[in-house]
Amino acid sequence: MAYSNIAYEIDGAVARLSHDRPALRNAESQELLDELDDAVRRATADPAVRVLVFDGKGEHFSAGHDLKQGAEKRSGFSVEQRWAYEELYYLEYALRIWDCPKPTIASVQGACIAGGFMVANMCDLIVAADDAFFSDPVCHTLGAAAVEVLIHPWVMGARKAKEMLFMGGRMTADDAYRIGMVNKVVPRASLEAETMAMARHIGKAEPFALKLVKRSINRTLDAQGLRTALHAHFDTHQLSHVSEAFKAARDRGLANAIKKAKE
User: Fold this and answer.
1) What are phi and psi of 78, to 5 degrees?
2) What is the pLDDT of residues 105-145, one digit of tens each?
3) Which of 37, 75, 142, 156 is most solvent-facing, going by the fewest CB within 10 Å?
């Protein structure tokens, strides 16, 4: 696959998978998600790649789903069509990152919102710039029950997840570090260097050992119910798309949703 919405770069044993729509705050279009999933498969299959880094070109990691494209292409979807689309593009693609047998690192600057939050938190580790912020405002902006993959309580705890989703506000990089969602906060100017240094150091470890320890930790979370909970929320999330609140938000249009998010 030729990439036009992401950048795929190899640096030694590290593959960098970058959102590359900076003029649109790296909004995740259908094409971007297809390319990102292809790149995940490509890096996973490449024996020379030991670590995957997910980042974003420009000022932001990602402002989330491309709502404009969604309004243009999917506003008339039936329940069945929306379910099938979101099951593939959001749930399955996200879980492919989670299940990648190689270590994954999200390198986050600026906005990391909704769908961007979902992608970053599928990674094993997060390095955040001091200007990064995390948000999932869709309960307020779209009347939707969070994003499709409710990873939130697993990476920030139940109370903070409720606060983020109920309030629709922003969590700073420092706050995300304090609750354990982010592994490291660094100056914006040092983000790339710090992330790549971490990735290169991890890449020196024995790949099979990393694969096994990652599998064991992920299985620990599965034993606690993570995968069952994610699938259950996805089903519940679909219900919110047929609510009157969601229909009203959709009818008000993209501009109003963005304005409400900013407020």
Assistant:
1) -75, 170
2) 999 999 999 999 999 999 999 999 999 999 999 999 999 99
3) 75
